[in-house]
Amino acid sequence: MEKFVIDGGTPLRGEIHVSGAKNSAVAILPATLLLDVPVIIENVPDISDVAICLKILRGLGAQVERMAGEPDTYRISCEHVKEHYVPYAEAKKMRASYYFLGALLGRCGRAAAAMPGGCSIGARPIDQHLKAFEALGAVHTMQGTDVVEVSADALYGNTICMNVVSVGATMNAILAAVKAQGVTVIENAAREPHIVDLANFLNFMGASIKGAGTDVIKITGTPVLLGNAGEGSVVDYRYSVVPDQIEAGTFMVAAAATRGDVVIRGVIPKHLEAITAKLRESGVQVVESQDEDVIRVFVEEDDVLHGTNIKTSPYPGFPTDMQPQMATLLTIAEGQSNIRESVWEDRFRYVHELKKMGARIEITQDGAVVQGGASLHGACVNACDLRAGAAMIIAGLAAQGRTEIVDIQFIERGYDNIVGKLRGIGAKMEKIRSLP
Ligand code: UD1
Predict the structure, then answer these.
(1) Whose CA is closest to atom 3 on ligand 1?
(2) pTM of the predicted model over 0.90
(3) What ranges make up the beta strands (E) of 191-276?
(4) Does the C-beta of 95 come closer than 6 Å to ligand 1?
(5) pLDDT digits (tens, 9 = 90+) for 283-296
(6) From 88, 105, 119, 148, which residue has the greatest number of CB atoms within 10 Å?
(7) Do domains 2-19+244-433 and 22-225 have the same CATH topology?
(8) Fold of 22-225
(9) Alpha helix locations (H) across 282-385?
């Protein structure tokens, strides 16, 4: 068993660099199955969800090599992939294993995987994913209660109207449609930066996807994806994953909660607008650099932080994946804040843990109400899920005394070298092995 130990109360100061986006990488890596040439993917975060994706790819028969001297870069060749069954244990370990369904369906007309696992933050149905596959001509069957198989003799473009705005279903529809015959239109599509990133990657490799980043995406099927240089090219294509919006947001809130001064490098400020707006409303100073990929977040001695209201919603709204971190900041800001969660019904499990540290926060029928102005103190707390774990780190950094966080495997699913990075800006934080 491993845990994080944090001695809090030190303002974070300095520069920190953001890694590639988890939610892009876990879609782009399966998407390599659709390519007819090898590809090099850069800026891949070193997190356990990526390790699982790479293991699944290797298990399917792909050649995956980490590039010498470039630890965040992989060369992937799917030429010899024949398998269509995603190993059960791996599929169960993460939510994003569902992208292998769309990618394998698009590649070979057949895919099977266990119903996806991942953090328990609410019911995580895949009905919209299956609806998209079926619209393209696939059928799905269940093997027992837990393994879903999708297959099609051929995939044909169609109009898919999503009943809910779903990141995963939008990405999976793209993956399945990219090589289908004819034109696919996805209506009520999600607009997250990782959707644009997946579309940019596939377009870079020769696909025709228009409208990603809006709620209508049009895909004209392309039978082979050879990159722009065409068949027989000896060029290795290189694509770089976009920066992680949620990792950046987590560092922004950590800087604010410790009343620090942190320059966050390698970001796309546009992707952070909803987070920036809420931080400013709370009295935090945020400066976006005009011509660099940098954002500075700081709190001066006389600045008073105050409460604000938050309602999570799909991009460009305030991201649900930042809700626990922002709520943590609001426990120490002055005044009352209301938090509404509109994406995941079970996303308040961190509240119980924050209360152990002195937070005054109550779950209501509509969300949570925070009575601010708390002086947080260290405690032993659980990282109930990935972003709840990030909230515990922020609370620990802001609290007086020592905080111990267990179940850190959830945090390591999505944060690349979190201890090293935060130590680099002054956090007194260690990862230690503890007795079970
Ligand atoms: C992705 C992110 C996750 C983030 C979430 C919302 C990845 C790997 N994970 O998850 O970090 O919290 O977006 O921004 O990118 N829904 C259905 N039927 C479906 C699919 C979804 O009803 O078939 C509902 C869900 O229950 C949820 C809402 O739609 O209430 C949004 O879910 P979705 O956007 O699909 O989330 P994920 O893609 O799983």
Answers:
(1) 321
(2) yes
(3) 208-210, 216-220, 237-240, 261-265
(4) yes
(5) 999 999 877 899 99
(6) 105
(7) yes
(8) UDP-n-acetylglucosamine1-carboxyvinyl-transferase; Chain (3.65.10)
(9) 323-332, 350-356
